[in-house]
Amino acid sequence: MTLWRTLKYDIPGASPSALGRLPVETNIKIVIVAPPTLGIPGLAPDGSLEIPDGASVDSVVNTFAIDRELRRHLPVAVNGDLVDRSRQLREGDELTILFPAVGG
Question: What's the pTM value of the predicted model, to 2 decimals?
């Protein structure tokens, strides 16, 4: 969502109609459940992350500091449900990264 902020310009002799509107980006907070090795920039110690309102799962996953090919193939869930990466995230969503397990 984009909010609009109205600004008054203090220009000598300008009429009251000399107003401008600039878009203001708003952020939402989500929670990420993922291994710490993913290197998620901006992740708080409690697992919360502020992202731009309207961000998709894919746009968040693409910020992770891991190999691009691996990022493309990581399964993701939002609020416990597997989702398409184009899904738009909402305030309070829990994004879970299902990292592959190896070993035996």
Answer: 0.71
